[in-house]
Batch of 4 targets.
Target 1
Amino acid sequence: MHIISIRHGRFPQIRMLNHRFRENARHLMVTLDVEGYSPPVTRDFFSIYHSLTRVFPTLARHQCCEQWENTPLFLQETDGVSIKTVGEVADIAHLVEHVIVDLVVAVSSTRTCSGVTCGHRQPENRFDLFIECEDVRLGVFAANFAVHLIRRLFAKARISGRYAKVVEAARFFHGRPNGRDPQQTIISRLGYPPGLARMAANHLRVFGFFEDYDHEHD
Ligand SMILES: [Zn+2]
């Protein structure tokens, strides 16, 4: 599974796709190819979902879409799972969308955030995810981080609880300058031990949180 492109801006054409979308909100648009997901060779959606809720407990409280526009697929609800499913690779793209939403809310403390997953007709494993997100660096980080974790869970039963510390560090840096040495800042301001601080700073860097997007415009 990999990200083809990430755009940020206003996409009026998708406003009708989710009645919760706020007027004038900016969106992250993530184009994603879902590859490498083939249960029972890989773990299935529900196993991946439950593993994610250990790092993202608020995922379990998400309100999922009422319906998917322009899709004949029947959305199923499962007890104890907040995300509706169709039993196809679209479920994984949809899960990525929900994890990005969860990250945007957790890091920026925005009160609400909505998204939508749209499938391409061709290729069938390509999806456009739209997520309300004002801050482009948070959006890019959230998309990369969500894809990284879910891809790992194709093969693994669980992900380390240390990832929650990456989210906490992102929340600390949100709206603040990065500083010259983020790892040191994490040690002194968040009290992480050096190894955990290095891991958190590396993940933030690798997934684009410290990039300068000043030249970005929409
Ligand atoms: Zn949903």
Note: The pocket of zinc ion is lined by residues 64-65, 83, 94, 98 (CB under 6 Å).
Target 2
Amino acid sequence: MSYELLTILSLVCIGASGLLILTGLFFIKTGRRELHKKAMLSASFLALLFLVFYLTKYFMYPPKHYEGPYRGLYLFIMVSHSILATLNLPLAIVTVFLGLTDRLSKHRKIAPVTALVWVYVAITGWLIFGFLKLGGG
Ligand code: HEM
């Protein structure tokens, strides 16, 4: 699979999963629990697909480096994205588990953090792609 195709597939997956998290939040805020569950499980599936494409790209091709004028901003976004993306996996697993096992008071405590981290990671993933496209080596 080419570098470009893997990049497009991983971007579409992480972007769609971020949108599904926002949709799932809208559903739970409007009392539609079943649709909330479906949206969040679909977001989780797309995030797993993202991971497959991202890791395939990581092991098949050398990483690109940003050499443009906004290096400080790029590094802040890249480092915060990488740390939160790593944190997002266990957060998502625990949040989904608590939701599926009806442990709702604990779910309600951790889920807003998971949703925030997830959406941040999705948005900054696209930003990093933009930086590399415009200023990548
Ligand atoms: C990563 C996945 C998920 C995220 C980020 C998430 C996020 C949230 C958030 C932020 C709330 C609180 C909403 C509020 O304050 O009113 C919530 C509530 C809820 N979630 Fe999830 N959720 C996820 C997965 C699930 C799953 C898989 C289920 C499965 C059944 C589920 C069932 C519920 C229910 C029933 C509530 C209402 C709790 C109550 O009002 O007592 N969630 N979720």
Note: Residues 3-134 form a domain with the Four Helix Bundle (Hemerythrin (Met), subunit A) fold (CATH 1.20.120.80).
Target 3
Amino acid sequence: MEHYVLMNVVKNEDKERGIAMEQIRSIVCAGNITPKACVRTYGCQQNVADSERIKGMLSQMGYDFTEQTEEADLILFNTCAVREHAELKVYGNVGALKSLKAAKPEMLIIMCGCMMQQETVQNQIREKYAHVDIVFGPSMIPQLPMMMAQVLTERSRVFTRLELPEIAEDLPIVRDDAHKAWVSVMYGCNNFCTYCIVPYVRGRERSRSSAEIIKEIEELVASGYRDITLLGQNVNSYGKDLEGEMDFADLLAAIDRIEGNFWIRFTTSHPKDCSIKLLDTMASCKKVCHQLQLPFQSGSNKILKDMNRHYTAESYYDLIKYARKVMPDVVVTSDVIVGFPGETEEDFQATLDLVNKVQFDNLYTFLYSKRTGTKAALAENQVEESVKKERFNRLLALQHPVCLAKNQEMEGKDYPVYVESVSKNDSKVLSGKTMGGKTVDFPGSADLIGQFCTVTVTKAKSWSLEGKIKE
Ligand code: SF4
């Protein structure tokens, strides 16, 4: 009978984590070996931020990092559950690790993230992927060392779907970038949009204390970070779960008062919680980027009701109009779902009408993907794939020319740019982001990376801009 354990929450977590990390280091670094870990992250920025904390703990346990699974002594997949094809990809990739494990039985294979919080998935992994050692959901990340110690000392497999209510602060962190940082301000979501699996896999909304967030950002700015993005499934409801805590607009204003030369961005907002106070605060704060990612999902009020979104196409448009009134240069992007159950041609026309009215700078477009466990997945009136695809193409045909036209309005003008990296296509060309979050490529020397400079836009393309540094 194969031996696995259902993990219990370890009390006295910080102390226990320190002990477990030392124990693991003594095992995996025996004989002065430096073990290698390969961490693969699927999905959203919140998963990227979670993986940075996972890498922080692995580094403290003595692991170095590799991108090659063949070189690794530990492989960890931080998974996503938002769309079906993301999950199918993970099953394929973890299946491919079986031969690696057979060749290296002491290797650790770990699966975590939103996909792994689902019972059906854990059962599938337990029964069909015997080469996987540890499986847990997003909130159990702080307990990773204790789970690894269990496996390494008892050679058992560890599975858990427990949800840790507290947020562990001060976990070690290995950031992917030296100048751009993700800072999670809250976890989970209480909105239960009927198509979305997130509330079932990331739990209820839990905000970090503003004191901890401000401390983290002060440290980041002091160590040279210039472009900081605040993360949350719905950042606009920050603080609502903490007695006496400030709301999101006040948090932004408090971060804006931190000394230093840096920019603040945030994602993701929800139109039902995006307040006039927030838009006014964005407009009055010097360091807050005028970049608004505000998913509208559908232009049909009937569909918005069925999605449990709690706003109308009209109230959404009023918000955008107000944002543009107080921030004329605001860059507005959004998410839209095509083919939600029950969507008629008339509903889809309403979506096209709103897209036409708003004139988004960019639109993240998705085909509705049935997620087991969500309310919409039970709906009988699912839309045919061919109809979804035909509508999807019409939506792209409407939006693409608008993206180009919006970028063409920027030609000949100067913009402050945060220099992110050398361009992927040409080492003599740099790539940066405007305050609006638009990508601009321009000739320049790599020692400008991590700095701000002023760029004159010379050429617009649909998804990016070309420019030259303004002397
Ligand atoms: S706001 Fe809605 S779509 Fe966004 S994470 Fe929450 S439930 Fe999902």
Note: The pocket of iron/sulfur cluster is lined by residues 189, 191-193, 196, 198-199, 233-234, 270 (CB under 6 Å).
Target 4
Amino acid sequence: MKDTLPLLDQFNRPFRDLRISVTDRCNFRCTYCMPAELFGEHYHFLPKHDLLSFEEITRLARVFIGLGAVKLRLTGGEPLVRQEIEILVAQLAALDGVENIAMTTNGFLLPQKAQALKEAGLHRVTVSLDSLDDTVFRRMNGGRSGVQEVLDGIAAAKQAGFAPIKINAVVQRGVNDHTVVDLARYCKDQGYILRFIEYMDVGTLNGWRLDDVVSAAEIAEMINAKMPLELIERNYFGEVALRYRYQDGGGEIGLIASVTKPFCGSCTRLRLSPEGQIYTCLFGVEGIDLRGPLRAGASDEEIAEIVRGVWSRRTDRYSEIRTEQTGVAAPKVEMFHIGG
Ligand code: SF4
């Protein structure tokens, strides 16, 4: 049963978006998320029995929809490394009240999976591709893939009927910032909606430094110098990207400026980790366990009550206060654990 009133936090932000991390594993080793030197062959990922089953995820999703969730996004790690993920997509697509099911993937397994995901009811796909330069891209993903494999994945998603396809690219100074314009031109020509993401201090393992951040303003300037842009309105309350349209009518581009232009004021997102913890912020320090109550026989209403309590007490606005916290930050949850 859907709550009649929106679930609001301490800043009157309504809960709307649920990000579901279905695994902590990934087939890439992106330097800003899961550096290979820390996540080698001996790293202990979550054992299968610790992961929420598809049935448990679907039951929780139904409870979250009742509390106001309209958008579900499947993330990871890499969601496509979770076996038979299309079965979960079909279960979620069958739920009443869900308007949008999306997935963020590195695209490597899309040639095998795109059609099945589409048939299962997935609405949208966002593919991560940080550069078109093969050497740069391989350096950024821990040598796990070339550019062509990801382009093949994007083509398979297009073939399966996903549109528009969004492309996410994290920009790091001195790493891939010199390849930004080429990627923008390619996505413009292909009709993909590209979103550049400012490099963030997610988790505790990526050695983040403010000096390595290329600001959204710098990125916009680099592109505007070659392909003139104009700023346009966000699509909805809570949209994370600053949207720009190409003046020649050639589509749009987005800039996710969590560091230089934080958007906590309109953050409507909750994250569910693979083992059933909920986090009220990407930079959260501690999660609230739902798997325990779920496996102990709690009713949907009892679980809903836990979530209502967590959200209504929410005061997160990490990006806005990041500057104040510099030097005293608590150990934050890792991005590969709860998705971006
Ligand atoms: S920092 Fe936290 S509160 Fe701010 S936008 Fe990101 S997830 Fe939301």
Note: The pocket of iron/sulfur cluster is lined by residues 263-264, 267, 269, 281-283, 316-319 (CB under 6 Å).
